[in-house]
């Protein structure tokens, strides 16, 4: 599949594209391929672009005493707007690929140019921005108020693909627990399912 088609498919979820628009989107040189473990952003770097995951999985994490603390996973159709991009200050975290990825990159300037070319895309970009904000809020609320076990159950309900495609030690880090604790939680959930 031509990588440009991934971006066309993404926009097609929101809007019916004309052939001309689809062609123009494909001709924009904003799609990059990354290997597993490649970095999109390192701690200390200033982010020059924002990202949209078209295929693959990216993790956001920081290091504490040499140990990864995973803050978020981004998969297909997830936008990533690094804080460093907005503040233009060095990033406090890393973004790296958990799998091989196809990612669209963009800047404020390029987005404005794009929207001048395609004004009917403005509502889509507003929707994307709202989705980023809502996702952040839900994550923060859940993290503060729920136990790791309930957070894991929510993850199973809302993002079952993630649980299957990301190594368990990364899921444990994301939940803020040790892999052994996650093993115990999974056993308990499995045992409870067997009873019902």
Note poorly predicted spans: none
CATH superfamily of the largest domain: Jelly Rolls
Spatial order of the strands in the main sheet? Answer: 1-8-3-6
Indicate the mean pLDDT.
Answer: 86
Strand content: 15-25%
The CATH class of the largest domain, by name, is Mainly Beta
The secondary structure category is alpha+beta
Number of domains: 2
Number of helices: 9
Under the CATH scheme, the architecture of the largest domain is: Sandwich
Description:
The structure is a single chain. The protein is α+β, with helices and mostly antiparallel strands. It folds into two domains: 143 residues, Jelly Rolls; 51 residues. 51% of the residues lie in helices and 20% in strands. The chain has nine helices and eight strands. The strands form two sheets. Strands 1-8-3-6 form a four-stranded antiparallel beta sheet. A four-stranded antiparallel beta sheet has the order 2-7-4-5. The mean pLDDT is 86.
Summarize the helices and strands and which ones pair or pack.
Layout: H1 3-12, H2 19-27, E1 31-34, E2 39-41, E3 50-55, E4 58-64, E5 67-74, E6 79-80, H3 83-87, E7 94-97, E8 101-106, H4 108-117, H5 122-145, H6 148-158, H7 160-165, H8 168-175, H9 179-195
Antiparallel strand pairs: 1-8, 2-7, 3-6, 3-8, 4-5, 4-7
Summarize the structure.
With 196 residues, this protein is α+β, with helices and mostly antiparallel strands. Strands 1-8-3-6 form a four-stranded antiparallel β-sheet. Strands 2-7-4-5 form a four-stranded antiparallel β-sheet. It has nine helices and eight strands.
């Amino acid at each position: 599949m031509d990588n440009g088609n991934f971006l066309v498919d993404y926009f097609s979820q929101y809007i019916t594209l004309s052939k001309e628009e689809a062609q123009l989107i494909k001709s924009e040189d904003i799609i990059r391929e990354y290997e597993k473990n490649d970095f999109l952003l390192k701690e200390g770097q200033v982010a020059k672009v924002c990202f949209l995951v078209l295929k693959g999985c990216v993790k956001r994490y920081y290091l504490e005493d040499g140990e990864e603390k995973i803050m978020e996973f981004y998969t297909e159709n997830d936008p990533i707007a690094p804080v460093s991009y907005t503040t233009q200050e060095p990033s406090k975290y890393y973004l790296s690929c958990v799998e091989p990825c196809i990612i669209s990159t963009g800047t404020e300037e390029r987005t404005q140019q794009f929207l001048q070319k395609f004004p009917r895309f403005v509502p889509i970009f507003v929707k994307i921005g709202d989705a980023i904000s809502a996702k952040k809020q839900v994550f923060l609320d859940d993290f503060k108020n729920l136990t790791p076990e309930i957070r894991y159950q929510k993850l199973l309900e809302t993002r079952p693909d993630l649980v299957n495609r990301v190594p368990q030690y990364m899921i444990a880090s994301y939940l803020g627990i040790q892999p052994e604790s996650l093993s115990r939680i999974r056993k308990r959930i499995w045992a409870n399912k067997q009873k019902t």
